[in-house]
Predict the structure.
Amino acid sequence: MIKFFKDLIRLIRSKDPAIHSNLEVLVYPFFKVYIYYKIAHFLYLHKFYFLARLISEKAKKRTGIEIHPGATIGKNFFIDHGMGVVIGETAIIGDNVMIYHGVTLGGTGKEKIKRHPTIKDNVVIGAGAIVLGNIVIGEGVTIGAGAIVLKSVAPKKVVVGLYK
Amino acid sequence: MIKFFKDLIRLIRSKDPAIHSNLEVLVYPFFKVYIYYKIAHFLYLHKFYFLARLISEKAKKRTGIEIHPGATIGKNFFIDHGMGVVIGETAIIGDNVMIYHGVTLGGTGKEKIKRHPTIKDNVVIGAGAIVLGNIVIGEGVTIGAGAIVLKSVAPKKVVVGLYK
Amino acid sequence: MIKFFKDLIRLIRSKDPAIHSNLEVLVYPFFKVYIYYKIAHFLYLHKFYFLARLISEKAKKRTGIEIHPGATIGKNFFIDHGMGVVIGETAIIGDNVMIYHGVTLGGTGKEKIKRHPTIKDNVVIGAGAIVLGNIVIGEGVTIGAGAIVLKSVAPKKVVVGLYK
């Protein structure tokens, strides 16, 4: 448990150059939302859907970050700022992924089961980018700020603007 | 009154595949913001502008959705997620309109009386799309995620990217 | 002190045509966030980084506007609506600048000291626009809604779409 918090604090400090002390991490939106998400995801996996949703809504109200309890998230995930982030129920996020505020990992309304993107390891997604549908964002991809991504992206690619 | 809530719950369940129970609808941002809007709009029409605004600000704080009390909204309107939505004072929205989080129905600062868009029936507006000015979005139009729309759109059209 | 509030109320009323009374200004997000920012910035300059950050986080929770306490802001600055605005630590904003909701004055992650934009006097930045890096937005520039700006802009220019 203590290790969990220590690792989380170390991760956040390593990601944001604007942080001046460990204490500052505690007011960090991602610090809060990630703890909420861990609890909500646990409840979701045990089919306490309502409670899980209640917690994720509470987290959203406190941070502006909406992570559906059903989303699957890997190690060293980080969200900077975070206001306006939406991560859908069937999104799958790999390790060492970093996303900025305003990013959507959402659905198109056309798919039924797996409706949201799969993000592979080491992906960076810039502020305001929108990634929609059951597509795969390959390892090491960089998605530019404000990009709209509607189809799968091959590993290592850099994507800007409308990609469909 | 009970019918109002029943219809609202049925509407929300029909729109979002991620909902697992009626109870979950109660924590839904749109459920809350729509009730606030109904009250604020009533007050606005009776010229209690300050009270109306106070309520819409409260709603925004709780949901991240800003609907000006003066906006006119038709039947079966639905906002998914909602964080960052801004709907201006003179916006007019028809029936069966669906909009996603981050959508703006705003002004350009150039018009004086009717400053915001008119959205006709059966329009869908994707996440992060920005629709500005006293323009008309025709019946059945689909506006893609992240689109910037600065002039009127003919019925049934699909609009993506910058449309000016 | 009283002059400060009077000027702030006058400024906000002059900027937003949807305001019906002075009282309404008090529920205005920018009114709140600007007072918080003034306090947080003062604390930041005196190296009370944690307290400063605590206050700016509180302000963000109440308004959806994230202004880093380290940002430098000139006279007659105004943010309309504001949800989703992010202004970075080393951003410098001149006089008479107006920005709309969803605007980011952020970093690219590549620069180390001055990481965020410098915005000169009389600039207008439309909803959802993203301005990244240690670049200079010249006097009187207009940045269109949803624009992505990644390099410096000469004075008086109008910028839309992806500018890199």
